[in-house]
Write a structure and sequence with these properties.
- With 210 residues, the protein is an all-alpha fold.
- The chain has one domain.
- 75% of the residues lie in helices and 0% in strands.
- The chain is built from nine helices and no strands.
- The longest helix has 25 residues.
- It starts with a helix and ends in an 11-residue tail after the last helix.
Length: 210
Amino acid sequence: MWGLVGFVPFLVLTWLVRTNGALHDLDQAVVDAATAVTAAHPALETALVAWSAITQPGLVNAAGALLALWVWRRHGLASRAAWAVVTLLVSWGLVQLAKESVGRVRPLVDGTFVDAPGYSFPSGHATAAATAAVTLTLLVWPLLGPRARVVVPVVATLLTLLTCADRIFLGVHYPTDVVAGVLLGAVVSTSSYLGYRGWNPTRGRTAPEA
């Protein structure tokens, strides 16, 4: 139930993107300003392009799967690791479905910093980053000490925000695209975890699986 409720902000934003011309104009104005900054600073452009390459959804999901494999093999948290991998894959599938359903074209910019085929809404990079941030933090949560339980979520959040900014400053996504991606990723991960906690066959055991 709560998982479905969590999708409401994403659906509202989707409706606004498809129907509100003023929002689109604001989106385009932000992209214009951001890409002007990128064009004026070649070093920034180089850094943004590099970050875009290493945060491709496929690479993020592969890194998450490797971490899940390590958690399973090293700490024996098999069902938790399987949950994490499935969640990453489900999120990836949902963002592809959303892109095709909305069919929003990418921003119009003067010049192209990176090649970004396909539709714009929601951002696949932002969705993957948010999904990984929440899912992988929850994956390793039982293994973290008190200090790490502060550091890991903060670092995961900062990396997600950096990825969102990267998409806008490269001119391949509107701000609403990345906001939608973060919403989708966070909701999928959280609702998936709530379902996992309700199903988890190791509940009640002394092992850190739960």
